Amino acid sequence: MMTFKANTIFLIFVSTIIIACNSSKKEPIDSSKTDWIIANLLEKEPDQISIQGNPKLVNAPLGKAVCFDGIYDALFLDQMPLKDANSFTVEMIFKPSEVEAPFEQRIVHIGEVSKDRMLLEIRAKNGQWYFDGFVASNENKKALIDEKLTHPLGKWYHVALVVTPNSIITFVNGKKEIEAPFLFKPINTGKTSLGVRLNKKSWFKGSIYRVKISKKVVLPNHFIHF
User: Fold this and answer.
1) Residue 94, domain member (yes or no)
2) pTM of the full predicted structure?
3) Is residue 146 within 8 Å of 157, Cβ to Cβ?
4) Is residue 4 part of a domain?
5) Using CB atoms within 10 A of its CB, is residue 56 exposed (0-12), middle (13-18) or buried (19+)?
6) Could you give the CA distance from residue 209 to residue 39 in angstroms, rounded to a whole number?
7) CB-hemisphere CA count at 13 Å for 156?
8) DSSP H or E run through 12
9) Residue 60: which domain range?
10) N or C, which end of the chain has less CB nearby within 10 Å?
């Protein structure tokens, strides 16, 4: 009887160790996507970014966001999340400011300063803004922009730029705005900036909650929750 109890205790002990070891294993990193809660970058992971100016944490409907002043505030990341992507989707939840908003605003810039790159941009005028999704790849350039597709400043929005090997598409709040043919080759070099172009021109005034980059085509029914 004592031997049986000892064996049972030993098995329980070994099982406990195995469970503890398994539970301590980290989940594998999904290299097919990059998902930034911008407040977390600023607050919890400052070693990942270079901060310019004084971007501030603010409250947003989904949690904390980061507010940029449109003059000096920006975040720079030594990361290239689009490397080797034949298709990609960049989503952003943001709020453009309605107060003294600059006309040309670059919000997300990934890639090189003036060669292969993509940007999420807006134009602000008369209390309204319209979207500009820009891609440059292998000497091809395309800006999807229509000044008639306006939206009120001062509200939260979801925007997306979807790039396939043969086309680019823009969405605002899940609704397709513009689609155009485009011969795309992967953007493999460069860095990332939030709140301004990588060359520190065309500053964004407003708040960003989240930016998600997927190395695939994402359809509106799978966009991040907003």
Assistant:
1) yes
2) 0.86
3) no
4) no
5) middle
6) 7
7) 15
8) helix 2-23
9) 33-217
10) N
pLDDT at 72: 97
Domain count, the chain: 1
128: left (phi over 0), alpha (psi -120 to 50) or beta: beta
Q: What is the token pair recorded at 123?
A: 């134009």
Cα(15)–Cα(71) distance, rounded to whole angstroms? 59
CA distance 82 to 62: 26
User: pLDDT of the chain along its 226 residues, tens only?
Assistant: 444 454 544 444 444 444 444 444 444 445 688 999 999 999 888 788 999 999 999 999 999 999 999 999 999 999 999 999 999 999 999 999 999 999 999 999 999 999 999 999 999 999 999 999 999 999 999 999 999 999 999 999 999 999 999 999 999 999 999 999 999 999 999 999 999 999 999 999 999 999 999 999 999 999 998 7
Which CATH number is 140's domain given? 2.60.120.200
Q: Tell me whether residue 22 is in a domain.
A: no
Does residue 196 belong to any structural domain of this protein?
yes
3-state secondary structure 146-197: EEEEEEECCCCEEEEEEEECCEEEEEECCEEEEEEECCCCCCCCCEEEECCC
pLDDT at 30: 56
DSSP category for residue 47: G
Tokens linked to 116? 């292969």
Contacts 24+ apart (CB under 8 A), 217-223: 217/87, 217/89, 217/162, 217/164, 218/89, 218/91, 218/160, 218/162, 220/160, 220/171, 220/174, 220/175, 220/176, 223/91, 223/158, 223/160, 223/171, 223/174
